[in-house]
Design brief:
- With 149 residues, this protein is mainly alpha-helical.
- The protein has a domain at 12-95.
- The protein contains 5 helices and 2 strands.
- The chain has a two-stranded antiparallel sheet with strand order 1-2.
């Protein structure tokens, strides 16, 4: 397991380490391989950092609070802090999400229609039109009142 950090932020690993706070080589929280794995599960740097915070919270959550006389160690606070950091990172990641509104222009509609890899919508203009519209319909005037029961 390797641990590297260079604050030039050119790679995802360094950006994630910065967001998580795993920048001190003498107090390593995650290996490079663990960050790389989180990168395969999540999309953005912030989501990867949130995933890493959740993993750290799970790891430190195995340790319990201890007290001996006047000495007390609250390890659960570390777990809570990383859980809160993960929620904050997920909220920051979601804040950057933008809805896509398609069909705003003719060229956008044409590009969507020509994309053979795009799933076709289940709804389309005219889907509820009467398929028998070209055939004449029977009216009350056409019905013989003598033949109705």
């Amino acid at each position: 397991m390797t641990w590297t950090y260079t604050p030039d932020f050119t790679g995802q690993r360094d950006r994630v380490r910065f967001e998580v706070g795993d920048t001190i080589s003498t107090d390593q929280l995650l290996s490079d391989e663990e960050i790389a794995y989180a990168g395969t599960v999540e999309g953005s740097d912030l989501a990867v950092a949130a995933h890493c915070c959740e993993a750290i919270a799970a790891a430190v959550g195995r340790k319990v609070d201890m007290s001996e006389g006047k000495l007390s160690i609250s390890l659960s606070q570390r777990r809570i802090a990383y859980e809160m950091k993960a929620r904050l990172l997920r909220a920051r990641d979601a804040a950057g999400a933008q809805p896509y509104i398609g069909g705003e222009s003719i060229s956008d509609k044409q590009a969507v229609n020509e994309d053979t890899d795009r799933l076709q919508t289940a709804f389309y203009r005219g889907m509820l039109d009467n398929p028998n519209a070209d055939q004449p319909s029977v009216t009350n005037e056409d019905v013989d009142p003598q033949s109705t029961p």
